[in-house]
Amino acid sequence: MMSPLIVWAAIGLFTVLGFVIALRAARANSGTAGDYYIAGRDVGGMVAGLSYAATTYSAFMLVVLTGLTYRGGAGALGFELIYFAGLSLLVVFAPRFWLVARRWGFISPAEMIGARYGSRNVARAMALVSLVFLLPYCTTQMAGIGLLLSGVTDGGITLFGAVATGAALSMFWAVLAGLRSVAWTDAALSVVMLGSGLLAVGFAVSELGGLAAFGQGLVADHGAWLGVPGSGLWSLPTFVALAFPWFFFALSNPQVSQRLFVLRDFRAMRRMILWVLGFGFVFTLIAVAWGFAALQLVPGLENSSMATPALLTSGAVPVWVGLLLILGILSAAISTLDSIALAVGAMIARDFVRREGVSNDGLQILAGRVVIVGVILFASYFALQKAQVVDQLAALSAAGLLVTVPPIFGAFFWSRGTAAGALAGILGGAAVAVWMAILQGVSVFNPLLPFTVGGVSAALFVGVSLATRPRAGALDFAAEIADDMSRHRAW
């Protein structure tokens, strides 16, 4: 195990770095809602890309994905590569999100969709559905922090102490300076996460005798884990059930789609996409290789989520590398928490607090800060309580957020879509998701769940739209930005 004192010292240095970055970011803020929630739309491509990557490739990667590899083998790689393939949606949607946000001043994805259909109720419905499915997901991030810190110290850092630390850091960075603070911290710590991940895998493979011995050991002792779809956990239905909603993650999750509003210009957008793709591909390979290394160096774990703490304390990885990796995972989890809290705060501020024609930026920022504190406290409390319904909703989050995808596609590619159709698709699909998963007990590993939720949502959106008329105040995004799309040579 690692000494709790050494881990606390590393976290202390991490906190000082974050404090300095947050203070500098706070001084750069101008006091407007746009500056607080989306950094004044002036973030460069590298910072935006690394921040997007840190938010997306969260504690999930080296806690959950590594555990899935440990438990089920190669299917974990295929599952994550489906998500990676879904990032190709950015090529199509990033220019459109950025252009309409610039033209009409949108700050939250829900605000954008509501304006497209001419209805704040659509925006509010999207905001509430995002809240329902993202809050429990925040709980899993906080639980990941607790699992990591308590695991590597063998309980020397208690679950409560770990969660309280994560909550305090999350609140401070997000509340003080908003997205600019989070993005700058992400950019610095994502480099640490990637570098320490490469080092950690290198040391683990070296402990096994090098790349050749690593591969030979896998084939000889765990050959079933290398098959498709893999051993134990994975089957074709399970793979499809998990992979299908994750393909649309870049659109369905507002904490990442909102990142498309922050970019300085088209050049920054292209650079951001390249940074996200490059980081994501390398880090996916790191997480899977780390899981296979754990399978050989620390076999027989009952809880596969403990693979990373067990491997870090096995002696295969130097303490200093382990500490860097812990800080990288901690930073990624905090980034995800802060990004979700900021996205939800922006939706509440813009779609419930903002009044048309009235300048109330201070009130919008205050409302967002209250929401941020509430989200983080919720995540902390339920991470400690381990409430079953929260675990169920967290597992359901990817499938549940699919209900926002049809209205997003319709916003840019189907002018016949209506507010009534968007409302029916979002609320009807969300109700089906909760009914199937919570009341009927349909497992998230059953492909019936995401395909039914997505299918019902799409059918309601199309069917009700065809039966109703677009509102007079609805916007026609496709027509309005057509010239800009051609000028920028975007798809």
Structure description:
This protein has 491 residues and is mainly alpha-helical. It has one domain (4-384): Sodium/glucose cotransporter. 77% of the residues lie in helices and 0% in strands. The chain contains 24 helices and no strands. The chain has helices at 4-28, 33-38, 45-56, 59-72, 75-86, 89-104, 109-116, 120-152, 159-177, 179-207, 211-222, 236-247, 249-252, 254-257, 266-297, 307-312, 319-353, 361-385, 388-400, 405-413, 419-439, 448-467, 477-480, 482-487. The radius of gyration is 22 Å and the shape is globular. It starts with a helix and ends with a helix.
Which labels suit this protein?
mainly alpha; Sodium/glucose cotransporter; 491 residues
Q: Class by helix and strand content?
A: mainly alpha
Backbone CA Rg: 22 Å
Distance between the termini: 52 Å
Mean pLDDT score: 89
Unreliable parts = none
* The CATH homology group name: Sodium/glucose cotransporter
- For this structure, what is the CATH class? Mainly Alpha
Tell me the count of domains: 1
Biggest beta-sheet profile: none
Please report which band the strand proportion falls in: under 5%, 5-15%, 15-25%, 25-35%, 35-45% or over 45%: under 5%
Estimate percent helicity. Answer: over 70%
DSSP strand count: 0
Q: Under CATH, the topology is which?
A: Sodium/glucose cotransporter
